[in-house]
Here is the input.
Amino acid sequence: MNKKTAILSLALLAGMSAFAQKDDVPKGWHLMDKEANGVFGVSADKAYDFIKTKKLKSKTVVVAVIDSGIDTLHEDLKAILWTNPKEIPGNGIDDDKNGYIDDVHGWNFIGGKDGRNVKEDSYEAARVYHEGKAKFKGKSEADFTGKDLVDFKTWKKSEVKVIGDGTGGGADMAMLKRIQTNLQKSDEILKKAIGKDTYTGKELEAYTTKTDEEKKARTSLLGLMKGNDAMDQTNKEFIDGLVEYIAGEERKENSKNNPPTEYRKDIVKDDETNINDRNYGNNDIMASTPLHGTHCAGIIGAIRNNGKGMDGIADNVRIMMIRAVPDGDEHDKDIANAIRYAVDNGAQIISMSFGKDFSPQKQWVDDAFRYAESKNVLLVHAAGNDAKNVDTADNFPNPVFVDGKGRANNVITVGASGDPKSGGLTASFSNYGKKEVDVFSPGVKIYATLPGGDKYGNLQGTSMACPLVAGIAALALE
Here is the structure.
């Protein structure tokens, strides 16, 4: 996925400075105007003035967010959640007979009927590599024809991704483990010094150390929080994100020699080889991983002008959360079924802030794209955070059909822009492509809703640029 830890990972591996931003843009800059505010936002106030002047009336637009989950109790989101009108909450009955019991505000395709939920998962490259290893290892293109040749070429790409190409690179696990251990030790020192278990980066910056030990601990943690634009986050949120990232890198390292753990299979228990086996999952759309999805949902539709936190771009939306994105790579089946669920339940726009390098069941996703297009549903997809040209490099899902029969016409692919005062006009981490990236949208230092009921903070990535475009589309939809 376009992970919430993506920016953290790059900053860690580049010596903590890769994405340090000057604090020269105001909160909510992405909604502001160049002439009025001096920043390259989307001029939301001008749009609303135009709507008012022309006496235009908006209609409610359902925007589905396929993501990691959402804080359903957040003060700026709970009133704008989509509610299934045909479902009676909590009665344990599939009232609308759509195959999903108590899907009141959406559905969780990576949950089990026993209430457990997938949190971490493996990476698609590792799944492809180990699944095809027995068939393709030691072979060459000359050994295959037709579909087998196509599969062999895909497998060879996965081999390079998992094993490497002999040029080095990859995460230094020993270094990352040392960083984790040192930061956790620093955090323990600082909690005792400050006198509370939870503190924000800004509180840490304001704290005056009393001993050399405290000073060293403060310098270590504060440097990373600043370098990752995480000053609004708490120590727990930041360190949990670090631990999650390192665990992911460890899974990647282990996958060189060992087949990936089947996290999803153990919990979901569907037939993953059968796209028509669709009635799986549960209705827990918050689960334990709502950070990314909560932030994206707030960018789209956090209640405007209520004096709380921040404003979403659109005042006419209802957010349908569909949980299908774990910490790791999403499965094609879940994405295909999430799109179909959104379309069947009235979503007119689908925001998709995730992506991966391999898509072994792309045909299923392509069919879902075609289905959405047949129902006039717009798909908005994040371009990705790898600073690569997706005209030539793989980034899935994409609108190009794997069967060679054209491409979907209902997809907007979104790169991330910034401001000259913060990140530059084109964010350095953003994927790009003259053919495959349709538009760039603010994705640097975006202030929006975070889990916790009344929490807000900055995240960045094409994951943030994507929902902003989805929200604009909802506002403009006639």
In short: The two ends are 32 Å apart (CA to CA). Strands lie at 61-67, 106-108, 317-323, 349-352, 378-382, 411-419, 422-426, 439-442, 446-450, 455-459.
